[in-house]
Amino acid sequence: MGGQTDLTQRRERGSGLGQGNFAAWLAGRIMRWGHPRSQAPRTVLLIALVVLWLVLGIIGWGQWTGRANGCSAFCVGRLSDYLYLTSWLLTPQGDVAGADVPLALDLSRYFGAAIPLLGILFLVARQIGDAMAETLTQMLAGDHLVVLGEGAQAVRAAEAAAHDEAAVVLIDPTIEAASAEDLNQLGVLVLRDELSVAARKAGLERARRAVVVGDNAGRNLALAGQAATLLDAGAADLHLQVEDEDVLEMMRQSAASRTEPGPIPRPFSLAAAAARSANEGLRLWDRDDGLHIAAVDSGPFSQAMIRQCLSLGWRVGRPAPRVTLWDPNGSVRDRWTRMAPGTLGDLGLIYDNPAFRLEFSDAPSIGAFLSETATADAWVVESDLGTACACALMASRLDPVPVVIVSGDEDLGGGLPGIFLAVSGFSAGLGPAILPEVDRRAQSLHGTYESRGKAGYIALGSVASGVRWSILPESMLAANRAAAAHIPVKLTDADAAGKDPRDDRDLLERMAEVEHERWCTDRLLNGWRKGERDNRRKLHPDLVGWKDLDEPTRQKDRDSVIDAFRVARPRP
């Protein structure tokens, strides 16, 4: 019991990339000093010192040789003494000229001495800076962010974190020298060793977050497994880039039975982040006749858009959401049969009202598919700007005009009318990918759920609830995230009704029914089916219509609606 109490009393995490302690901050500043973006300031400084040395030397020489009492032990009046005077001006060691030296000549001596000293310092600044930054990080740095990976993705992730003002260390054995230099100029410490060696240099055991990035899912999983054993499970978070839906599903299933030490790897997807930005920016769910999107492709971005739109498209008094997918060869339907078989069954057994529609088109061409879906609110294209432009040209001839949504690595700045580009790369920032705003709302939502304790319908500390956000199984975290993403939809419904469900029982009942329909959709999209409760086989008895629910289960949905308003619109 004591161990459990200690675990639950540790601070929750979920905000801040990892700004670093003073040592981490100082290491970053030293890296920037050792790797300046331009040598011009240092060159100007050396030139200024040379000019001051010459000007003050000439002025001081004139003052010295013009003294009324003439020369004593050392005299520049003789040409043979010029060599000694020059040496005297260049070195601060020893006053070979005797006493009563003019101030201008004395200053010239020190400016002259600074020229070679600074020159040498600037030449070895890179080596000195790298050594000092690495030593500080290894011995004292903490609360910083460590990026692990290889190739362009790792470089972009580290660069994005640095722009977000995090204290960053990158571990990449394959990084090119030019890329490493660019990151060094941003204050990022780059380590080219394997993780087993670099972990100590990076101060990984004191890090705030470790982020594993890359396109190779197997490599990412291996790195995450190694990093988890080195991180402090009570103080660090581990994030893992996963774009493949099959891999993500396996992670959700394995997280609940995970026994390895260290923090639970939290998967994130750049495609999902881009889909979130599209839904937030366009408010696709806010449609009077219900949301209908058509997907030309079936890649990660398209899959994320489909899932989010089906989950977000539930509104009070509006038709259920609808999705049409282009599937000329049957491979898309096969994927959905494998990943979410419940979405293809008889949904009339689950929903009292008309259910969401997931349709597949075998149109022979993209043009034919677009003609079939001319009434859609949006056409979704996977990272093909040419196809997106062709869709936009066709959409411009329709009324109303469907918006064309395409994923891409860089923002086009609104240069293509009729096209919304959802940035799916790290150029949109690392924070929106691993710490989206919806996760902060989800953490607050989970907190309200947990605060009910035994007075509600869960036992505080139960395995099912997970107690702490940071140790929730991935499947439950995803469920919280989906519920939090729907909060703006609930607020819009309440505003349209001009009431607050906490004060209006009828509105609360209607919103609770919609919440149950949304929850059923989310379960179905994640592979659950109706049946006696079995988490391993993904069976749940509550996948039924509202009228078939018992009262305690209906109360859960009412509480979910109230919790959403407690998070979004708290009362004193």
Structural class: alpha/beta
Mean pLDDT: 83
Major beta sheet, specifics?
6 strands, parallel
Order of strands across the main sheet: 3-2-1-4-5-6
Q: Any idea of the CATH class of the largest domain? A: Alpha Beta
Give the fraction of residues assigned to helices: 40-55%
Helix count, per DSSP? 22
Radius of gyration: 32 Å
Strand composition percent = 5-15%
CATH superfamily of the largest domain: NAD(P)-binding Rossmann-like Domain
Report how far apart the termini are: 34 Å
| Count of structural domains | 4
Residue runs with pLDDT of under 50 for 5 or more positions: 1-15, 454-467
Global shape: elongated
How many β-strand stretches? 14
CATH domain fold name of the largest domain: Rossmann fold
- The CATH level-2 architecture of the largest domain is identified as 3-Layer(aba) Sandwich
